[in-house]
Amino acid sequence: MKSITCVLLFLTTLTAHAEEESSCRIEKLRCEYLTNPIGIDETVPRLSWIVSSTERNQRQSAYQILVSSSEKNLENSEGDVWDTSKVASDETVAIEYAGRALASGQEVWWKVRLWDGEGKASPWSEPATWEMALLDKGDWHGQWIARNDSVAEQPLPLLRREFKLAKPIKRARVYVTGLGYYELSINGQRIGERCLEPGYTRYDKRVLYATHDVTKNLQEGDNALGMMLGNGWFNVQTVASWDFEKAPWRASPRMLLELRIEFADGTTEIISSDDKWKTDEGPIVYNTIYGGETYDARREQPGWDKPGFDDAAWNAAELVDPPKGKLVAQAMHPITIDQTIEPASVTETRPGVYVFDTGQNLAGCAELKISGPAGTKITMKYGERLNQDGTVNQDQIAGHVWGKGKDQQFQTDTYILKGEGEESWRSRFVYHGFQYVEVTGATEPLTRDNLKIHFMHSAVPDVGHFSCSNPLLNQIWRNARWSYLSNLHGIPTDCPHREKNGWMADAHLACETALWNYDAVTVYEKWLSDMADEQLADGRLPGIVPTGGWGYDWGNGPAWDSAFLIIPDYLHLYYGDSRLRTRLYDQHRRYVDYLTKEAKTGTNSIGLGDYVPYKTTTPEIVTSTSYHFQDANIVSDTARLLGRADEAKQYDELAEFIKAAFNRELYNAETHHYSNGSQTSQSCALFQGLVPSDQTEGVVAALVANIHAVDDHLDTGVLGSKYLLHALTEHGQVDLAYRIASQETQPSWGWWIKRGATTLWEMWTDEGSHNHIFMGDCVNWYVRTLVGINPDPANPGFKHIIIKPHPVAGLTFAEASYDSIRGPIFCRWERAADRLRLQLTIPANTTATLLLPTDDPASLREGGESLDNVLGAVLKSAEKGLAVIHVASGAYEFTSQLKESPIK
């Protein structure tokens, strides 16, 4: 009996151990970096999740993914579409789907569980979904339709279609696009909150469409579809420097739609765009992306998008040629109105002229609320500067338009009242860059209540925060965020008013700052496809993307074009996903081969260089050659990822050839100057890794002397603004870098703030645009250097994290948080007397190396304990000034003795 009892006790203990649950949890399931996306056409979608735990040193040792054809099957853990079984892996990012081939419109449900380092299983995650779009050209039954085929300026069209549904509806999806922009409504209700849809592309190569769940918008009986179209970038009316009016894709606004309805009885019906649709002129009588929008409310036709409307006077829609571009599902975060801002003030500068100050430079539009007689014309003129008399000045931003015709309208919206009490209106198919709105034409005095401001941009999730004891740096960080979002509208742009163009260098220079603050990977992946569309057969790229043909002969060059290689490299570093690099590999090779052909001796001066320098100009040969070198290294690294050893060797040798030529032709060993010895020349050579190790000390000394000669200020253009702080930090001059970063006199980021800037500017003077992001890499430096959070190139995607804080003498604390692709990272340090206190959070399933400054390694404590007694933190080495600690996942608080500031 005793023996039986022991056996039963033993079996009970085993069972209890087997059923013991992991403390880890699976969270934040994403497909193609989106949450529950509807309408993707990637046939091998990437799945990601994060591992969370409140305990230290927790990791995933294996996972299981279930993908099911129904919610019920998933609840029963039936992976009838894909069941990975138990996969021994700690990977959580970009797991490629390898289940059954998915059909057009198919919706699947999925969940994940893991086994931790002790073999304990976690609970299943909450369920998630994704849904396929239309995967084959033959899936489309609709035809492209328009009001007419004229590109001339004319009122924008309305299109409508009525239909009846005789049975209860189970599920309905609409697949839709309208060029240049569209708004869709069903039974009088606008579908979704997206703005400026679809995303801007090179329309003769790719046209994006969206998928909407409209099950709840339909009804048994009578229904009506309504479409309002805008010109957008498809039919640019304004004649400007970039020749979009000559774009090869240009045509009249047109649309394509497919509504698929599944009924409760299992039958289906499709309603498509065809010649059964009716069309008429709408109330938008003028619309162009640079000029603005004019809306005549007297032309409204109430109920036009509802059932029962009398459209007898409307014409049949015309069948028109489709754009030449391939239809592609739009799988990126859409443009939306992020927030609505009340004006800070309103001033009547002269009788009947009111200037509203938003208090913030931004992108978007104003919404007018006003009353008056029918026919009253209210004009809203947008700008970011004021004349001496307080009216809006557009001179600095309208030059590229007015230079092609002074009489052209620019950044101006007009509303013509219908005279029926209080009326509200905002533009639909344009956006503006502005701080001030000048309103004229009102018949009654205006107050702040007459206008509200809509901030509009791609709705990328906020993932980062920075703060420190220097209020100036905090304000620069805020300004950079406003500038970045103001310049993100389906593509990263240079400015939201004058150009709205996707300048390549602007984007790659600000990309790291962007990624620390926003989960913008979907927008970048879309834009990189635009770049691929623009590449010529010989490898050349334009300076702006998309382009209607402008920018292949000026405005480009390696410093600009290299965004095509650099941004995928950053996405690999920050997201741990190499798909984009490997898919674009052949096109990246073609670009590098083009540069190599042009640069026969190893150096080249192709294209733009250190644009808008403060005083000292740096020859293009310095920067163009350095980007050729960087590009060759990226191609060789990608070749290694692909297992192409011979090609990796080829581009390694090319990089060495370029480096040798760079030093042979540009370096003066006596002065330690590269080229003219400018700050950009010196910091470029250091930042790009072009300086021979035995010459580094002299090159750094020459750079430092140059900086001291201008009273510790920068003297660079846009490229040098990326290199300088990092190059100084890397070579033991972090305190000098901090002095430059925190200057308040010209030229500096702080000087902009003292001049009243609420965004970043284009130039180190007062000229140019006042809403640019390309000088914004200083914010990247705040996070990577001052706080010290860094991705590890050897373990990309923050699988391993390098924490290297720099408690410079001018700061008492600095902190940053970042919701990485593997979970939240937090670091904060503060100095008090001779003590350094550092709080650190490392996500589950990751590790970190902490390089902690200390004058006395023996003083190191974590939570008051010696590191010898701490779970998850191991002191690997310690020398005077620096302790190297291996850190497992979890939350920590380290303290150490610290008398001096810099880490060398």
Number of helices: 18
Mean residue pLDDT: 95
Helix and strand content put the structural class at alpha+beta
**Main beta sheet strand tally, sense and closure:** 10 strands, mixed
Q: State the end-to-end CA separation.
A: 72 Å
Supply Rg: 30 Å
Tally of domains: 5
CATH architecture of the largest domain: Alpha/alpha barrel
Low-confidence stretches: 1-18
Beta-strand content bin: 25-35%
Name the quaternary structure. single chain
What is the helix fraction of residues, given as a range? 10-25%
CATH fold topology of the largest domain: Glycosyltransferase
CATH class of the largest domain: Mainly Alpha
Describe the global form: globular
The number of E-state strands comes to: 45
Task: Tell me about this structure.
The protein is of the alpha+beta class. The protein is 24% helix and 31% strand. The chain folds into 5 domains: 2-132, Sandwich (Immunoglobulin-like); 140-332, Galactose-binding domain-like (Jelly Rolls, Sandwich); 357-458, Sandwich (Jelly Rolls); 464-787, Alpha/alpha barrel (Glycosyltransferase), CATH 1.50.10; 800-897, Sandwich (Maltose phosphorylase, domain 3), CATH 2.60.420. It has 18 helices and 45 strands. The radius of gyration is 30 Å and the shape is globular.
